[in-house]
Amino acid sequence: MIQNIPVIREIDPASVAARLTTAPRLAVLDDDPTGTQTVKDIPVLTTWTVDDLRWALRQSSPAFFVLTNTRSLSPQDAATRNREIARALHEASRAENIPYVIASRGDSTLRGHFPLETDVLAEELRSVGAAPDGVVLVPAYIEAGRLTVDSTHWMRTPDGDLLPVGESEFAKDATFGYASSALPDWVEEKTQGRVPADKVLRITLTDLRTGGPAHVADLLATLRDGATAVVDAVCDDDLRVLALALVAAEENGTRLLYRVGPSFVRARAGQPAHPPLTAPELAPLRAPSPHGLIIVGSHVSLTTRQLNSLRERTPDLAEYELDVAQLLDPARRDAHITETASAAAASLAGADTVIRTTRTVVTAADPDESLAISRSVSAALVETVRRITAAHRPAFVIAKGGITSSDTATHGLEIRRAWARGTLLPGIVSLWQPVDGPAAGIPYIVFAGNVGGADALADALALLRSAA
Hints:
Elements: H1 13-19, E1 25-30, E2 42-45, H2 50-58, E3 63-67, H3 75-96, E4 100-105, H4 116-127, E5 134-138, E6 146-149, E7 152-156, E8 162-164, H5 183-190, E9 201-203, H6 205-220, E10 227-231, H7 236-251, E11 256-260, H8 262-268, H9 279-282, E12 293-296, H10 301-313, E13 318-322, H11 324-327, H12 333-347, E14 353-357, H13 367-391, E15 397-400, H14 402-412, E16 417-425, E17 428-434, E18 444-447, H15 456-466
Parallel strand pairs: 1-3, 1-4, 2-3, 4-11, 5-10, 5-11, 9-10, 12-14, 12-15, 13-14, 15-18
Antiparallel strand pairs: 2-16, 6-7, 7-8, 16-17, 17-18
Helix pairs in contact: 2-3, 3-4, 6-7, 7-8, 10-15, 12-13, 13-14
């Protein structure tokens, strides 16, 4: 799969950063919080008032994130949210006189509201005279092994093999399932034929590595009327070539909208792959409490393996289950939440404490009903967290799963503004430093459900413990 490809064209991240000094600010609309896990010292918003967006634009950073959490929403609600953010962003940009480009950050295993989100954003940009010439699809996530070669998207399995994503468990998602691994075919599938595969511009490793930034910029300049381009990437250097090409194309008048995985943001922000945070760096970030809270909502098989490893390596944990059957029963829901939260809050005085949902996935025949079940369970988990942290302030909070980490940040901990300070593991597991609200001073660790090896959750907890 990755044989007989051109030699890597090495690009210094500093050369990308230098080109960004006059480039528009990159506003990353993140459909769950895990898009921050490849970057360091980048602002994050969980709300999108004009004042909040103006704050983000004023920071000395080439990019910022706006947590939309749209992957947990119905299509209609996701569309509404994207419209709200696009309009507020335009107003904030005018007030600060700082131009912007938008990246719609989706899942590196191709789940999410595509093409709905880019369609809505393109419509909003069109309404202010900035209609995109093209939509650039870059789903790669290098550290997690989600790679694109010859326009086909792959994922690394636990045993190290590469699997076409269309054959993975993620492609069978109850809400966002799909069949295609070749990105042009996937675009045709998700747009229901509106964008035929043969009309998708393919930017390959040969274009990136042999042609270089100028050649790729010329290819991007051929996009018209919101056409779609898909881009290969196997390493950060491929994405840095793309970043230089994008800046050049935009300087020459090409308007672009992006749908991307996490690694794109790091390259477009001119950042290198930073090493994980160390215990000395973490120590001043921990809240002055002896123990932390671990919240596990993700149901993918990898999360379950990570939870099992955490138990084996950390036998002194306290663990409590939120039973989904009780959460979906209106007569038992509140009492179950109250009982679980009270017990978990008491346990934090003496142990790192896990709150998890039942490992059995409950779905419905209809995708929207499945999403509604997920939202109901997540809301119960977040209410439990809110009650726990109100009763006992933890040293840190780890949230496992995309929807889980988003809802915990916005509703459980009431975070509005934060900084993504780095990662606990190479390229995965982001640590946020909240700067306002009741969570200020409590490091918040965003841990996607579908990344890391079997020991990743245990490794993250061990690192946090070492900083005590």
